[in-house]
Amino acid sequence: MRRKPRVLFATSEAVPFMKTGGLGDVAGSLPKELKQSGVEVRVIMPKYKKIDEKYTKRMKHVCDFYMPLGWRNVYCGIEKLTHKGVVYYFVDNEYYFGRDNAYGYFDDGERIAFFSKAIVECLQYLPDFKCDILHCNDWHTALSTVFLREFYNGMEGYSNIKTIFTVHNLKFQGQMSDSVLSDILALDYNKAAADQLRTDGASVNFMKGALCYSDLLSTVSETYAEEIQTDFFGENMQDIYRRRKDVLYGIMNGIDQDEYDPSKSKALKAHFTIDDMEGKRKCKEELQKELGLEVNDSIPLITMCGRLTQQKGLDLVKHVFGEIMDLPVQFAVLGTGDREYEDMFRSFAERYPGKVAACLTFNEPLSHRLYAGGDMLLMPSLFEPCGLSQMIAMRYGTLPIVRETGGLKDSVIPYNKYTGEGTGFSFANYNAHEMLFTIQKAVKLYYEDRTSFDRLIKQAMSCDFSWKAAAEKYIEMYKRLHPELWQQEKPKKTTTKKGR
Ligand code: ADP
């Protein structure tokens, strides 16, 4: 190899600095694995006010500049921190990022456009990093691919940069009013760009820009890569995906196996391994105590952990919750999200004291305890690009009950009572009773055939959800963009003097 390929991984969140969902996990662990596989990868993200002081204290100022954003000229600072061997750049602007949350503000369009432009603009100021590949993730960084081609092409150091755009969730696209085009992006005069950014002539769609402008596209499981080419899952982007399917990859996420390790997670009171499961029993007891559930090892505990939105299949749960409660089970949910679903779980917890617990907060350590202390994890998603919760659950010996969609289909092997195969339970249709039957099947196995249930646990815990396989596939994409960086250098000709 001539020199290491240099990738800038652009994301709006990364563990341990900021996390609101799966993207934070991915950006916190994939770069580490890529680095170990020989890619010089650096991460860039906003410097949020909420980043823990123990990290901000260690950040070093790299550069600052003023950058045009529509009619504005805005300040941008770049800070740097090396964490677990990976260099992180933080985009600093107090007006945009000095707020309590990462998203959810009236001016998100402007904040995100600022971040996306800063990613590209800063490349000329970074003293020790020249970018070969800009790897953007989700709508928060989608515009970088557009800005790169429209404003920076031809400038020194920019022309050879190739782009990848990875979609972690197609539902969130950054749909803005048309005025953004002139007011913030300054692209209204550019018909080609405007056409690729507009969806219906009346609004601007940041993600659509990236789907048109990026050299390669990917998403986070093979099944989801197929699904998004269909009308049902495509969220109005299916035509672009179908047209560009030759550059579309489906790469299943991994999980950080050090972070999610039942033998050493600091959040747990007891630890366990596949060969010594005693600690899991203790974890269940502690969890039941913590959540105010009846402390009883023999009752199966069904858990849910994640955003409480329609995507996660909560309408199915709502529809048959009474019937689930007719079973001898306990139910615990950890999540935040739509008011409707938060209220729903609050009322279930009131109606079934000691049997149902609802923790409507974002609590990382508690999530570990939930994964470790549960017997089953319910994830009946309407759609699921990849899903991490089911993989974390399997690693903690908790069997997932999932709908066969996206990454859930790719990561959970359904129980087959004839062969004994399986790492969980699954159902195909988005139908509340199909979900209920599957839960009943799992509960029946728990009570009536503990040997088979325990074998499934061992099979689930033996799955390899490391990032290794995914990193290799991303490297295949990088190679396709810059094959010359992987070609072996030709051995130098050695001239030998001919003797007489
Ligand atoms: P999504 O990215 O759609 O939110 P994923 O399953 O891919 O869903 O990832 C969700 C991640 O966020 C998992 O690591 C999960 O444990 C974590 N998580 C979600 N909600 C909470 C919560 N309320 N408290 C702690 N962790 C949470």
Short note summarizing the structure:
The chain is α/β, with parallel strands linked by helices. Helix content is 37%, strand content 18%. The protein binds adenosine-5'-diphosphate (ADP).
Description:
This protein is of the alpha/beta class and 500 residues long. 37% of the residues lie in helices and 18% in strands. The strands form 3 sheets. It has a 9-stranded mixed beta sheet, with helices on both faces. A 6-stranded parallel beta sheet has the order 14-13-12-15-16-17, with helices on both faces. α1 (22-36) crosses α19 (468-481) and α4 packs across α5 (142-152). It is globular, with a radius of gyration of 24 Å.
Strand content: 15-25%
Helix/strand/pairing category:
alpha/beta
The unreliable regions are: none
Which small-molecule ligands are present, each listed once?
adenosine-5'-diphosphate
Largest sheet: 9 strands, mixed
Rg over alpha carbons: 24 Å
* N/C terminus separation: 39 Å
Strand order of the largest sheet: 3-4-5-2-1-6-7-10-11
